[in-house]
Amino acid sequence: MSLSDSPEDSSSSDDFAEFLDAELDSISEFDENNSVLDTESEKRRKVELSGGVITRVITSHSSSSQEEPSKLLGSLPKNTCTHPVIFARFCPRCGKKVEDEFGVAFGYIHKDLRLSNDEIARIRDRDSKNLLRNKKLCLILDLDHTLLNSAQLCDITVEEEYLKGQVDSLPGNLKSTLFRLDQIQMMTKLRPFVHELLKEVNDMFELYIYTMGERPYALAMANLLDPRGVYFNERLISRDDCTQRHQKGLDLVLVKESAVIILDDTEAVWGKDKENLILMGRYHYFASSCRQFGLINCKSLSELKSEESETEGALATVLKILKQIHSSFFDEERKDKLEDRDVRQVLKTVRKEVLKDCKVVFSRVFPTNSRPEHHPSWKMAEQLGATCSRELDPSVTHVVSMDAGTDKSRWAVRENKHLVHPRWIEASMYLWLKQNEENFPVSHSKNQTNLVSNL
To answer: Which chemical reaction does it catalyze (predicted)?
Structure first.
């Protein structure tokens, strides 16, 4: 039976259960617009996962029951049903047709699946307990500029033409990191250490992909990162699934926020979930990526014929942090219960260790008449554990300045304090380690403007 043949106003939960079972069994492949997978076996694998997840969600009201899903679906009288799960506009528990606006759409699990808020909370509670019982947390992974970098084939520059002779078109080759994907007219470079990262974190986290890219692109990238289907299964959230335009959110993740960590290069898209975020330095392999972020005078890694360090780069660094956070969260010497712990507090504690012994004063960093404590550099320094001050005193350890000629900068030199560029704070944040101050010198500014303070 197809969705178009479904009963318009069925009052029989048994009839609808049979319809739902038939619908799940009849799914044979993804819609061509939603899949760029190359092989029929890969398509079948994804379809089986989708159908399995829907059945698991629907039958999870009695997860210990051995009954058939179709029997469980019809177990509640129609007039008392709260419609926890909606599939194809029908509630599988009571058979009643439900309005499209009801609940939250979980299109990444199945295009016709919606869950009520109460059901989302119940599943989150159950699945979070299961994760914690297995000493796992949840890790949300952004794609572009975090795990990889992509460019349209038409945007490849003359200086990057040499790459076309180095690409691989077979996602299953885990040794390859540069791919040409003619079906979506793109070239993709995987970030160094990405396969090692995924292998390591898979033992500590349940993994999601969450991208602002469209679903066909997301599926293609997932196939490069996880060609054997080991890490992500159906947990792939794309722009098509987002509940708010241009925003990501943990409302689509079926794990409690207290057990979720996010890796992403863009803080602004995460709204109220920033406390879960580990901000990643952007991976600019292609020239078009630099242009996208206004880095006009910056050469990309491909143009420089260079690459990030595999052992000391961004992904190797963040793996160390993830291991530290995981270890702290599951520390057996802690007295509190596992379910009462919050990974966001662990994140804050670990992050505050980076600059914990530093007292910072800023000079010519903030616009005149602004409130310094609202500036990103001030906030970043405090997140890293530094004490920020507006005034100089003997306890100050660092002056962060854009110009070595300001009064505060000269004071730092005279008093043998550290004088550093604001990039020192940024580098310390991305690497989760206080950086050598000598690598961030401050030069004399040639231009004096009234937009920034001379102090």
So the answer is: O-phospho-L-threonyl-[protein] + H2O = L-threonyl-[protein] + phosphate; O-phospho-L-seryl-[protein] + H2O = L-seryl-[protein] + phosphate
